[in-house]
Amino acid sequence: MNISLDIWTWISAILTLFIFSFLYGDNPFYKFAEHIFVGVSVGYTIAITWHNFLYPDLIVPVFKQGNLINLIPAFLGVLYFSVFFKNLSWMIRIPIGFLLGYGSGVAIPAIFQANIIRQIQGSLLTPKILERKDLLIGSIISLFGIISTIIYFFFSREQKGVSKILAKCGIVFLMIGFGASFGFTVMARVSLLLGRLQFLLRDWLGLIK
Amino acid sequence: MKILEFLTKIPRRIIFLILAIFVIFPLFYPLNLTTKVSVRTLDLFKAIDNLKGEKPVLISIDFDPQSMPELYPMYISILRHCFSKNIPVIVLGLWITGVGIGEEGLKMIASEYNKEYGKDYIFLGWKPGITAVILGLGRSLKETFPTDYYKNPLESLPLALKVETYKDIPFMVSLSAGSPGYGDWIAYAQTRYGVKIGAGVTAVSAADAYPYLQSGQLTGLLSGLKGASEYEYLVEKYGYSKAFKSATQLMDSQSFAHLIIMILVIIGNIGYFFLRRRK
Amino acid sequence: MQRSLPLGLCFIMGILMILQFFSPHPISQQFFDTIIKWIRIISAFALVLGVRSISLRHIETVKRRKSGYIYSIFTLLALVVTAVLGLVFGIGPKAPIRTIFNNILVPLGATMFSILAFYMASAAYRAFRARTIEATLLLIAAFIVMLGMVPIGNWISPHFPSIAEWLLSVPNMAAKRGILFGVALGVIATSLKIILGIERGWLGGRR
Predict the structure, then answer these.
(1) CB contact under 8 A, C122 and B15
(2) What residues 55-74 of chain B have any CB closer than 8 A to a CB of chain C?
(3) What is the per-residue pLDDT across B22-39, written as a single tens digit (0 to 9) for each?
């Protein structure tokens, strides 16, 4: 046993145990840790925003380099604070409208290309795939799965006949997909727990190598 | 009948205790079971391993402390891989609470390999406006990040002088715990500027990345702690590092946890079906 | 004016950004460079609103002595101390905020999600029943992935990792791609509705 003598490791360990105490039930130690977490997160966000962005990208260009054009977006940004004044609060819509317009405009071609065009290209049975026996069966099953999954989500018309059969096949693919996601979720949550146990047993208590 | 009822009603805290015992035990008595490296991990490893020249790898820290146990070991192994091959590294982050993690790992591994700041590696830090940052890097690195994390002007860093836009970055890795993450890099950096992207993701989102792997939009994928341990194994196997493999240490416990959760689900189902039949 | 100005701005920005994607003309590229710089600046101000709303909530709780107000004092104290230390001493490797980040924020954040492992084990045991064919399929797929992803699966049978990989690459991929198409079309449709002013929820109240 090689217990840590570092005060900060002890603080980390105690805070870790405070959070774990929630497993027994809600209690003041957990609440204390939870509230500290929120406060520190926000404080950290303020510091990083200032040092990583506001100072080098706004203060320096405007006040030290005289790049006054940056005052236009700064003015638009300041309009966010109009929400603090009842009569001017509608002005918050201006920066929101600007950002939403930009976001929607850049998203349409990007999403269309990345998540539709490229995904359709990946689904097609190209001559290259038809030549390769190792890929062919998987590709046919995939294509069938994609079509049946889409048909399952097609609610605009009553599903009967072939479309009903295909929709049922779609459920099979969806259930396998959700099962895989569930399996991975178990893995993820356990990994996070193990990370903390590793810290407690190795870095704090020195019980394992 | 009583046993069957008990099987469906094991108290919550007993389940907690069982899980705790089964995950802690292998940490003290490891079985050292061998893992099979998945083809996805190998693809990512090879993508970095085949890089030559002085062009840097870009790593994006798209996670925060909540996902650190899964993604941090990936970051460390990728850094070891790059530095041992003398590949320069540029790191940035899209998640504000992830920048501390990015800086911590980079400093630690760079000193392990005696790398020089500004010449072998740069830490850019964080900027707001996710898509604007991703798209901005395609136009000009220096315009998007006039200074690095430590407020040094980019012109003063030799490595930054070699990089104008994505065209000077042969490969990038997004270590992603959700959105913003690899999806945004694909949609904005790849479709517009053709960046080659690999991803390390939390296991929760691993299954969702497969459409991008099949379409070739992602070159390689590290899935959760397993992906991290496989990368550690490869980095050691190819002689790039002999450092302690922290993700690998946890894989036996991970195995036991999966087994015990599966057994619990099976027990619950046995109890449920026998009781239903009797009723 | 109060509605038409933001709606008009949103429309113009949306259309210009779409057109810009297809135009390599230098003016178009210059416009793009300016806009992405502006967006970064405007986005930073949005963060202030978030900080304000969290702070106000806790200040209100303390002022009115609501139940658990003592915890709100801790939140505010932690916020102020971290922010002041960060602003005054910087964020470099030896700055005090680094110690706070490594020893308070990291352990708290990482542990917060780690306790979910216990609740998930308990919930899976209680609720995961193979009642129907669909549920059974889900269960089998989950078990295969859970075994295929860990070394013990490889130890039980070296086929498990290969079966899991096939399951993920073929049926799972097909299902996820089907969903992805739906999500992508949804994003595009919503974006179009926002640009064209059909979706106006973001304007808030009626004024």
Answers:
(1) yes
(2) 64-69
(3) 999 999 999 888 888 999
pLDDT for C146 beyond 60: yes
Q: Assess A75–C contact: CB distance below 8 Å, yes or no.
A: no
The residue to which tokens 């269309």 are assigned: A112
Q: Chain C closest CA to B203's CA: distance in Å?
A: 10
- Residue A47, in any domain of the structure: no
State how far the Cα of C147 lies from the Cα of C154, in Å rounded to an integer: 8
Contact A101 C9 (CB under 8 A): yes
ipTM of the complex: 0.93
B2-11, B36-45, C148-157: range with lowest mean pLDDT: B2-11
**Do C154 and B36 count as a contact with CB atoms less than 8 A apart?**
yes
Q: Which of A10, A16, A38, A124 is the best residue to mutate to test the C interface, defined by the most C CB atoms within 10 Å of its own CB?
A: A38
For residue B57, the surrounding DSSP H or E stretch is strand B57-62
Residue A197 domain flag: yes
Chains touching chain C through at least 3 C-beta pairs below 8 angstroms are: A, B
Spacing of C-alpha A188 from chain mean position: 14
Contact C33 B140 (CB under 8 A): yes
Question: How many residues comprise chain C?
Answer: 207
Which residues of A are less than 8 Å from B24 in CB distance?
Answer: 197, 201
Beta strand extents in B120-255 (DSSP E only): 121-126, 171-176, 197-201, 218-223
Q: Do C114 and A189 touch (CB under 8 A)?
A: yes
Q: How many helices (H) and strands (E) does chain C have?
A: 10, 0
**Dist CA C6 CA C200 (whole Å):** 10
Q: How many CB atoms lie within 10 A of CB C29?
A: 13
Q: What is the largest CA-CA distance in chain B?
A: 78
Cβ count near B42 (within 10 Å) = 15
Does residue A179 sit within a domain?
yes
- The answer on pLDDT for B8 being more than 90 is no
Whether B136 and B144 have beta carbons less than 8 Å apart is answered as yes
Within-domain flag for A18:
no
- State the pLDDT at residue B1: 63
Task: For residues B257-262, give the mean pLDDT.
Answer: 96
* Mean pLDDT of the region B47-57: 93
> Total structural domains in chain A?
1
B149-171 pLDDT tens trace: 999 999 999 999 999 999 999 99
Chain C residues within 8 A of B266 when measuring between CB atoms: none
Q: Which domain holds residue A165?
A: 124-209
